[in-house]
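[09:14] KT: can someone run the structure on this one? pasting the chain below
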Amino acid sequence: KQFFETIAYWTICSSVAAKAFGLKKRETADMTEVQDDSGMKADLFGAADDANNVHNYLLEKGAEFVNQGKFEFSKESVSALSKEQFIEAIKNYFNSYTTEASIIFYSGHGFQEGKIMLDTSTGSYYLNYGEILYLWKKRTYPERNRHLLLILDCCYSGKWVNLLLDNGDFTDVSIQASSTDVEKSNDLGKGKGS
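[09:31] RB: done, structure tokens below
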């Protein structure tokens, strides 16, 4: 028996590397040449692939999973939403009467304070745990949209789990984190684990 008949999901990737430019070659310990991308910390090559893989996985799971948003944020993106527009979109997503549960998958940069970064062509902005949970708690139909699952593929994502436990928000929210609150996640790059 299913717990939920309709589970909506969003996939979000940020700091997406549009192209690999200016990469230098370096030799590894075994004397093979590889591209040195150590200077490109702001651009993540695996974020878009990871979000697409999660999107496709959920799409294949069945009719109870409904895609309600697929967002890509990068410095080159002229169509990325502003923070105000994105907050409004989250509100609308959480306020859907047709949804019994909500999933948000995020792949991008995370920070020790419990915030994530969204890149746009006009600059980056941040969302934190409190902002997301505030919108969730204020949703219009809490008896209908009963559970939120956040899947965070970013550095320090364990901080969100700590905040969830510290604030006692775990009755209707779950968080899957890719790292602890004190460790970074590794962006393996295109084709290397995504």
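[09:33] KT: thanks! The CA atoms of residues 24 and 36 lie 5 Å apart.
[09:34] RB: yep, looked fine to me
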